UniProtKB/TrEMBL annotation:
This is Pseudouridine synthase. GO terms for molecular function: isomerase activity. PROSITE patterns: PSI_RSU (PS01149), S4 (PS50889). It comes from Lentilactobacillus raoultii. Pfam families: PseudoU_synth_2 (PF00849), S4 (PF01479). It is an enzyme of class 5 (isomerase).
Amino acid sequence: MSERLQKVMAHAGVASRRKAEKLISEGHVKVNGHVITELGTKVTDNDEVKVDEVPISREVPVYYLLYKPRGVITAVTDNKNRQTVVDLLSDVTERIYPVGRLDYDTSGLLLLTNDGELDNHLTHPKYEVDKTYVAKVKGIVTNDDMKQLRTGVRIDGRKTAGAKASVIRTNQNSSIVSLTIHEGRNHQVKKMFLALGHPVEKLSRQSYGFLNLKGLQPGEYRKLKPHEVEELKKLSQTK
């Protein structure tokens, strides 16, 4: 049975399918000793695939849920030698990588896996996975602000989808707001609040779909249970 090269690479835990496609097009991949740059190339189990001269092997897929602390990079490596989310899972032997990203100064729920197919689906714009954040923002959030969050806020030249929003509490000069979105635009939550005149002071992702941080402290992680993996696959329509 033959499969597309980028899919094989994703299943082997090399990278997500989109990142695998970039590696192929940039000439990092060889099949049976020949550099391949054609994305439609198909390979079988009998073909030898190397990425930067390192042979790939199909790994058993693994899935982890991490409570990412603030001050950690959502990446596999960092050229500034800062701590990455993968560093926090130092006893995991498989080559895992984060699903999507959280900013350096943002904490909360982050998935890591070597299942490139699932990663590709969960991060694709057409799959609407709810993500709930709790934000501490400057100023008092008004009813008009809440209405805008619920109907959509214009950022980067286009309007966001409507969000679920509620004020948890207000202090003298700040507000704590829960916001649920299903889009994955860059720095979206921060930009939405900034557009309303409420810069984010602190941000944490509390849930991803049906998953939450229950039982975990910042820096701790756990393996997903089999039924959670199946539910994620249903959520991303990959099953």
